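A quick aside before the break. I want you to see a complete sequence-to-structure record at least once, exactly as it would be stored in a machine-readable document. Don't worry about memorizing anything.
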Amino acid sequence: MRVLLFTVLISVLCFSGCDGRKSKAESLKDAVTQFKDSLEIIEYIPEKYAEMKTDTILSNGFSISIKTYTNMKKSVITKHVLDTIMHVSHHRDWISEVKIKKDEKLIFNEILDTEFFAKNNINIRDSLPNAMNTRVWIDDNAPIEKDSISLLTVFLNPNDDDFIIYNIKIGSQGQYRLKLLKNY
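That is the input. The structure line, written in tokens, reads:
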């Protein structure tokens, strides 16, 4: 009877000790792996709202006001893993409001972004799927003409640094023409 009781007791101890749970080493290893997999650094570029305003008066009677600011609602997201840490970057899009006067008369008042180009049958997203506007500026290399002004704008894909440059030529009556200059 003692042998049977001893055998039952040993069997109970053996089976209760092998209940399928992980060892402390295995549990620690799994916890560290799970922690590393959950590490994610989120970055916003730029971090907060930014605004730039440029007012220019030219000798040909044009005055140009360009206000460029961050679009806090729209961004292009890039991801990459570095040392098992996921880095997520939100590259915020930019909006450029352009007002042009000729001899003190407002002739052009537009927001230059991907929607502006789409409205003019140019789909930036066909060339660069994750394109974002970076800025608009006066073309310093173009000669000053009596009846027109040239602006440049760049759309950038932050995933691979490809970009597109467009020339926007605006006439003295407010008519404009868009021309692709470079596509890299």
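Two observations worth writing down. The mean pLDDT is 85. The CA atoms of residues 50 and 144 lie 30 Å apart. We'll return to this after the break.
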